Amino acid sequence: MFAKTRTDRRIIAAIIITSIVLATGACAAFQPVDANGPRANVPAYPVGLADPTTRLEEASVAWYQISQHYGAPGKTEANLNPYTGTLQGLPANTIAVVLPKVGTQAEQTEEQTRESLRRFIVEWRQLIGAESEQLSLVERTDEASGVKLARYEQRPFRYPLRGEFGQLLIRFRPDRQVVSLSSNCIPNADRIQGALNALTPKINAEQAVDHVRTQSTMPSNAGLTARQLVVYARPNPDQSKGLQLHLAWEVEVTNGPMRTVYLDAISDQVIAELGL
């Protein structure tokens, strides 16, 4: 009888211990995630480009190959943008760069000139840092000196690109010889499109206007209008890390000391102001 009683007690104790273990495990499973801990599902912000070292090396190789194609007498150093690894100028007195010929006439029509530019961009895309499909021609003018100018804007993202990046400028003579070429386009933009699309603004347009007014020195009669969300590119404070891309509200200012203010839609901080 006593042996049976001891056996029953052991069984009851085992059941109690098992219940405690299961309950403790369940509580641990439903513990809230530490607010200060890592959250793998939250995209890194601001969205940054990869360290430009590799990109600069690739662009240097591309420059050597294309300069040899154009008859460079030896190896020359490429003049590269330190943030994007794109060509920011042609080295002086090294190679004669000429736009592709389109048509059979001695002088190309405007339509043929634009096609010639498109083919040139395709050929130089590694040094320009953008595919031709990402570039929109926003200016085609003839200067008083006779030199022709073509300016492109890179439009690779869901939102318009702002900041001092995403520009391509080509100047050339009527005989198609390129006088100057500079690009600060964002290379491999398609690789960061997903990260930008995953961002969700923390403030709306109305809040953006209110917060710009409180964060900036604005006269009482200044008019503020949040026009649109944009991707604002600016150098990383650590210059060795290239660019940072911010999701920002573009706020237009009237009767104020500046014409446009950019407010980060995630951090809720003014990140740029453009003067009049």
Describe the model.
This protein has 276 residues and is an alpha+beta fold. It folds into two domains: 141 residues; 76 residues. The chain is built from six helices and twelve strands. The strands form three sheets. Strands 1, 6, 9, 10, 11 and 12 form a six-stranded mixed β-sheet that branches. It has a four-stranded antiparallel β-sheet with strand order 4-5-7-8, with no helix packed on it. A hairpin with a 5-residue loop joins strand 4 and strand 5. The chain is globular and about 60 Å long. The relative contact order is 0.12. The N terminus is likely disordered.
* Beta-strand residue percentage: 25-35%
Rg to the nearest angstrom? Answer: 29 Å
Q: Which spans of ≥5 residues are poorly predicted at pLDDT below 50?
A: 1-7, 11-40
User: Which oligomeric state applies?
Assistant: single chain
- What is the overall pLDDT average? 85
Our measurement of the CA-to-CA distance between the termini, rounded to an integer number of angstroms, reads 99 Å
Annotation, overall tally of beta strands: 12
Outline the biggest β-sheet: 6 strands, mixed
Q: Give the helix/strand class.
A: alpha+beta
Give the overall form. globular
- SSE sequence, one letter per element: HEHEEHHEEEEEHHEEEE
